[in-house]
Every structure is written in structure tokens, then in C-alpha cells.
Amino acid sequence: MEEGGNLLLASTASVYEVGNKHCLGKMPFSATAFHGSCLDLGVLFRAPSVAVMQLAAELEWEERDPWDRIIAATAIDLAGGQVVTRDEAFDHLAGIERVW
């Protein structure tokens, strides 16, 4: 990301996920701070399409968190399967390459 030259896409669901975790005391920064930092890096946000929502619902993955499922489906649909996260749950989903 820091090297530049890459198209950076994120699901709008990520803003909710970060904000929710912040409210629960699990994330040090707010949804507003996250969104602003992403914009500074040139990240483009995409709302989940019907196709992404269908994919999220039908993923063969034991993860039950709907937001993680939407983020994973967005990564598969828009980013060729790459997702930037520390969440190791994404390691258990075929078609996803976890970066970080």
C-alpha cells in the first residue's frame, strides 16, 4: 500500500466493522478516523452489490459474522481475493489471500 501504484478498494462494510469494534473497545480508532485514513491512502470504497451479497450468503465458510462474509465476498469480487486484515479467520476461506 505504501509503495503506491496499486488500486486499493474496500467494502463500505469495513467502515461499519471498524466502528463497531471501536465502540466495543476492540479497535483504537473510530470509523471516522479509519475512513479518513483510507481516503488519505487513496482507497476507493464500494458498497456491496446484489452479487456480492449473494456470494456472502452462499460462501462455503464456517465464519458466521455477516460483516466478515460481506468483506470476504467484496474481496473476491473486486480485488481478486486479496484482503488486508489481521483476522486469521480469512485464512480458512478458499479464494482469499490475506495480506498482513
Write the layout of secondary structure elements.
Layout: E1 9-11, H1 12-23, H2 31-41, E2 44-46, H3 50-58, H4 66-78, E3 82-84, E4 97-99
Helix pairs in contact: 1-2, 1-4, 3-4
What key attributes describe this structure?
single chain, 100 residues, alpha/beta, Rossmann fold, two-stranded parallel ribbon, globular
How would you portray this structure in words?
The strands form two sheets. The protein has a two-stranded parallel sheet. The protein has a two-stranded parallel sheet with strand order 3-4. Helix 1 packs antiparallel against helix 2, helix 1 packs antiparallel against helix 4 and helix 3 crosses helix 4. The protein is of the alpha/beta class. The protein starts with 8 loop residues before the first strand and ends with a strand. 23% of the residues are buried. It is globular. The longest helix has 13 residues. Helices cover 45% and strands 12% of the residues. The protein has a single domain, classed as 5'-nuclease (Rossmann fold, 3-Layer(aba) Sandwich), CATH 3.40.50.1010. It contains four helices and four strands, in the order E-H-H-E-H-H-E-E. The mean pLDDT is 91.
